[in-house]
Design brief:
heterodimer; A: 406 residues; Aspartate Aminotransferase, domain 1; Aspartate Aminotransferase, domain 2; 2 domains; four-stranded antiparallel sheet; globular; B: 156 residues; Sufe protein. Chain: A; 6 helices
């Protein structure tokens, strides 16, 4: 693959930040967008815009078809059984909230247990916390070791007869840990517990095959997969979507509405109430095409090489400490520098056009577990190059210069 | 924007070797402050005497260079002042950070003004303003004996 050709598809990389070309290492937060996605948004609004669904006119029919084409592409992208298993939401957070709310409403009672892990992003903890508050459910946290890997034996022990659902990340947005979801699901199957996977970080970076993983729910954030903001995806096995009560009520999700009775639309409409982010969903098809045009295997290979290169270079800088050392690590590198707070690091490297994140990355539980209040994080996207890593390392040297540390 | 304006020598020096660090003896007031966005924490210990003068002011906590330096400088400037003047210095400081990038205070000498002005560069970095203001809000909270901890996310 030609990395320069890939990078040239992203208009933002021809712009300057603080007078410097952008070195974007914050893709775990959100990815930049290729021109094809931006063009699709523009084209749709200029030439094809209509709401989808009920209207009979040509524009509406065309818009509906395009919207559904993306659903088919997503189905193929994650290897789902049916397009009815693909629900569009406003983001991955809403996808997880949907499951927590609908599943919780039907299946969670006081004293029931929800098993999450120390690695979870707030979006895969707080929705379950609502059930703790509303229903008296118990949330258990499966521990990690100091490397940032889930301790499988402890995880197994924490599944009890009262465990109603397991909610677990596929890829940590702090340590870069790739969680062995297939193994986790096999363990859960034996105990008959459904598994929700937070796939926000994994979807842009590793192969997703929900049939192979055999998970029950899988949440994806489209803006992290080189797509527009405002779109998330919930994959769920059809049986769950049939069994669960709807989430948000309104237009589009109903079949028939009477004064004394409401019946709901068939899947996937049942879970897509109100006007959807139509143009954004249509444009997301281009993001999938972009991913496919490179090929997931090439993406994995490129990013693994880059991660290895970055780790090697960062470790050579005195006083840089890499957070976690998981067995299987993706391009998410959190680090600290002795004597320099992550917020100071971020402000100083920004001066060189380097965008990284500093803070707890919406993982306060994990930071507490790691005895850290904050970390700096460089995260890789498919458009990053070795030069980007070199610029980062140089900018880190500058931090040490500003602070006068050796 | 110029990094040197933000990370002036005074700030780096106070960040590395903060003054008045620790818990002072027989403090009469104390308050906790927290910036949940970056994890900065500060606890101030204030000792007022019978004339309502700041006899001692110390702090404990962790945070970025801006936050530690701002707290350290604050303790230096407020020590020895009456509560009324201390409160006015806090108002003047917050005004400098948010609005004027200049210090209006009549209660500080030139040397003290130079110190407090070293923090004025923060105004250029909106994401860092809360790092600088946390301790000052926490001191207000201590003076007023507020029960709730200061949380920068609840302050504009």
């Amino acid at each position: 693959m030609d990395i320069n050709l890939i990078k040239s598809q992203f208009p933002i990389f021809s712009k300057k930040v603080n007078g410097k070309f952008l070195t974007y290492l914050d893709s775990s937060n959100s990815s930049q967008k290729p021109l094809s996605v931006l063009k699709a948004l523009d084209y749709f609004y200029k030439n094809e815009f209509s709401n989808i669904g009920r209207s009979i006119h040509s524009l509406a029919v065309n818009a509906t078809n395009k919207f559904e084409e993306t659903r088919m592409s997503v189905k193929k992208f994650i290897n789902a059984n049916s397009k009815d298993e693909i629900i569009f939401t406003k983001n991955a957070t809403e996808a997880i909230n949907l499951v927590a709310s609908s599943f919780g409403q039907k299946y969670i009672k006081e004293g029931d247990e929800i098993l999450v892990t120390d690695l979870e992003h707030h979006s895969n903890y707080v929705p379950w916390h609502y059930l703790r508050e509303a229903k008296g459910a118990i949330i258990k946290f499966a521990p990690i070791n100091d490397d940032g890997d889930i301790i499988i034996e402890k995880f197994k022990e924490l599944i009890s007869p009262r465990t109603k659902i397991i909610a677990i990340t596929h890829l940590s947005n702090v340590t870069g840990t790739i969680v062995p979801i297939k193994e986790i699901v096999e363990i859960a199957r034996k105990k008959n517990v459904p598994v929700l996977v937070d796939g926000c970080q994994s979807a842009p970076h590793i192969k997703i095959d929900v049939k192979d993983l055999d998970c029950d729910f899988y949440a994806i954030s489209c803006h992290k997969v080189y797509g527009p903001t405002g779109v998330g995806i919930l994959y769920a096995k059809k049986k769950w979507l049939e069994e669960l009560p709807p989430y948000i009520g309104g237009g589009g999700m109903i079949s028939e509405v009477k004064k004394n009775k409401v019946s709901y639309a068939p899947l996937p409409g049942k879970f897509e109430a109100g006007t959807m982010p139509t143009a954004e969903v249509v444009a997301f098809n281009e993001s999938i095409k972009f991913m496919n045009s490179i090929g997931i295997n090439n993406i994995v290979k490129h990013e693994a090489e880059l991660t290895g290169y970055a780790l090697e270079k960062l470790k050579k800088i005195n006083s840089v400490n890499i957070v976690g050392n998981p067995k299987n690590k993706a391009g998410v590198i959190s680090f600290t520098i002795k004597g320099i707070h992550p917020h100071d690091i971020s402000t100083i490297v920004d001066e060189d056009g380097v965008a990284i994140r500093a803070g707890h990355h919406c993982c306060q539980v994990l930071h507490e577990r790691l005895n850290l209040t904050a970390t700096a994080r460089a995260s890789i996207g498919v458009y990053n190059t070795k030069e980007d890593i070199d610029v980062l390392c140089k900018a880190i040297e500058n931090c040490r210069k500003v602070f006068g540390s050796k | 924007m110029d990094l040197k304006e933000l990370y002036q020598d005074i700030i780096l020096e106070h960040g590395k070797s903060p003054r008045n660090y620790g818990k002072c003896e027989k403090y009469t007031h104390q308050a906790k402050g927290h910036n949940p966005l970056c994890g900065d924490q500060v606890q101030v210990y204030l000792k007022l005497n019978k004339e309502n003068k700041v006899e001692d002011l110390t702090f404990e906590g962790s945070g970025c260079a801006i936050s530690i330096a701002s707290t350290s400088i604050m303790t230096e400037l407020v020590k020895g002042k009456s509560v009324k003047i201390a409160k006015q210095i806090i108002v003047d400081f917050l005004d400098m950070i948010r609005n004027t990038a200049d210090i209006k205070s009549k209660d500080l000498d030139d040397d003290q003004k130079t110190k407090i002005m070293s923090l004025s560069g923060v105004k250029q970095y909106p994401m860092r303003v809360k790092c600088a203001t946390l301790a000052w809000h926490t001191l207000t909270s201590a003076i007023d004996k507020k029960k709730e901890d200061v949380n920068t996310e609840s302050i504009d």
